From TrEMBL:
<dbReference type="Pfam" id="PF00570">
    <property type="entry name" value="HRDC"/>
</dbReference>
<dbReference type="Pfam" id="PF01612">
    <property type="entry name" value="DNA_pol_A_exo1"/>
</dbReference>
<dbReference type="InterPro" id="IPR036397">
    <property type="entry name" value="RNaseH_sf"/>
</dbReference>
<dbReference type="InterPro" id="IPR044876">
    <property type="entry name" value="HRDC_dom_sf"/>
</dbReference>
<dbReference type="Pfam" id="PF18305">
    <property type="entry name" value="DNA_pol_A_exoN"/>
</dbReference>
<dbReference type="InterPro" id="IPR002121">
    <property type="entry name" value="HRDC_dom"/>
</dbReference>
<dbReference type="InterPro" id="IPR010997">
    <property type="entry name" value="HRDC-like_sf"/>
</dbReference>
<dbReference type="InterPro" id="IPR041605">
    <property type="entry name" value="Exo_C"/>
</dbReference>
<dbReference type="InterPro" id="IPR002562">
    <property type="entry name" value="3'-5'_exonuclease_dom"/>
</dbReference>
<dbReference type="InterPro" id="IPR051086">
    <property type="entry name" value="RNase_D-like"/>
</dbReference>
<protein>
    <submittedName>
        <fullName>HRDC domain-containing protein</fullName>
    </submittedName>
</protein>
<feature type="domain" description="HRDC">
    <location>
        <begin position="221"/>
        <end position="304"/>
    </location>
</feature>
<dbReference type="InterPro" id="IPR012337">
    <property type="entry name" value="RNaseH-like_sf"/>
</dbReference>
């Protein structure tokens, strides 16, 4: 096995100025074929998930490492005319496409090598494993979780980043051949287009609210919700001002526990699990935020929101609607068998949430009364044609 610790042509220098971007765009325009693209982000350290390094490789011109921070408009102005509308190859595209879209970059067509690996039946679909299995090459890894917003970036990090696209073009070609031989290339194309189109309208980060915090639905009292809201607003203000990940200001799990506990003094706040009690300034600051929320007029406290009941938990479903649950279970078992036969994970054939919704709608709500109605319901859940074709016989057999 060959160990690849640095790019074969050497690690490219980082391009970070408007002039650099223009030169890179001109070079890339002279290349041939699809573009292999990857990004490095720093969402564990910075406020959002923007790209701090963009790696691009194309046949005939090699690899480029581009740093858009500080000149993002110039980056977009130079690179968008060359990259947009072209064929892209990305590994795990849903993780990279949003940050690329924030830079105004959008593929014309997409080949996601991770999704290709799933559909081809690979046991391990991370980039290093696929490269190793197909090409007998061991990629140097280990820097994916680093703070890529640091400058200058260490040489070993840059080598790691360049290696992420070093063999990506070859991987795309090989996976296309494998999928074609398995009769799955059309299925993969539908998946790739679904991923591409799902990111085509993204222009910036999705706005978040305190209501979307994980765990906030477990708070039931208005004063708890008032504290959660005030803590969220204070945390958001700090995170935006400092360009710092919210988890580094106050982890959401801790925020929710503070709201649940409603601490009335510093000692009570310090006892909340996970709270940085040793930092007196943190105890004082967050204690003031809690006090401010509790001192606000009760009429301004938010109320708990109740969402319409959808599909219940499996245990409740089995207890309250045993015949319906039995039909759902039969469908799930047949899908699992189909998964083994096709060597495709069940969740890639049909999302579990989609199966639950279709089964519930067909056997309890009776919104779907005939197998003829199932395709439209599946499309409402964004199922692709190949998925509908494979699963409709199973759903028709078990749910009706």
């Amino acid at each position: 096995m060959t160990a690849l610790t640095t790019p074969r042509d050497g690690t490219p220098r980082v391009l970070s100025t408007p002039g650099d971007f223009a030169a890179a765009a001109s070079a890339l325009a002279a290349g041939q074929g699809p573009l292999a693209i990857d990004t490095e982000r720093a969402s564990a350290f910075r406020y959002d998930d923007r790209a701090f390094l963009v790696q691009i490789r194309r046949r005939g011109v090699g690899t480029f490492l581009l740093d858009p921070e500080g000149h993002r408009r110039d980056f977009t102005r130079a690179l968008a005319p060359v990259l947009n509308g072209e064929d892209w190859i990305i590994h795990a595209a849903p993780s990279d496409l949003p940050s690329l879209a924030w830079l105004g970059l959008y593929p014309g067509s997409l080949f996601d090598t991770e999704m290709a690996g799933r559909l081809a039946g690979f046991d391990h679909v991370n980039l290093a494993s696929m490269i190793e299995m197909l090409f007998d090459v061991h990629l140097a890894k280990g820097h994916g979780a680093e703070d890529w917003s640091l400058r200058p970036l260490p040489a070993e990090w840059l080598a790691y980043a360049a290696l992420d696209v070093e063999l990506l073009l070859e991987l795309g070609d090989t996976m296309a051949e494998i999928l074609d031989a398995q009769g799955k290339l059309d299925w993969a194309s539908q998946e790739f287009e679904h991923i591409r189109s799902g990111h085509a309208d993204i222009t910036g980060p999705t706005d978040s609210t305190w209501r979307t915090m994980k765990g906030v639905s477990s708070l039931t009292r208005p004063e708890q919700l008032a504290v959660a809201r005030e803590l969220w607003m204070a945390r958001e203000s700090i995170a935006v001002a400092d360009d710092r990940a919210v988890s580094r200001v106050l982890p959401t799990k801790v925020l929710i526990e503070v709201a649940r506990a409603l601490p009335r003094n510093a000692a009570a706040l310090a006892r909340v699990r996970g709270f940085p009690a040793r930092r007196r300034s943190a105890v004082r600051f967050w204690g003031e935020v809690v006090d401010r929320a509790l001192a606000s007029p009760p009429r301004t406290w938010p109320k708990r929101e109740f969402t319409p009941r959808g599909v219940p938990s499996r245990q409740a479903w089995a207890n309250e609607f045993p015949e319906s649950f039995a039909r759902f279970s039969a469908a799930r078992e047949l899908l699992d068998a189909l998964s083994l036969d096709l060597a495709i994970p069940t969740e890639n054939i049909l999302k579990p949430a989609t199966l639950r919704s279709v089964a519930w709608s067909s056997t309890v709500d009776r919104e779907v009364r005939s197998p003829l109605d199932v395709p439209d319901l599946l499309r409402d859940h964004q199922a692709r044609d190949w998925q509908i074709e494979l699963t409709l016989p199973i759903l028709s057999e078990t749910l009706f």
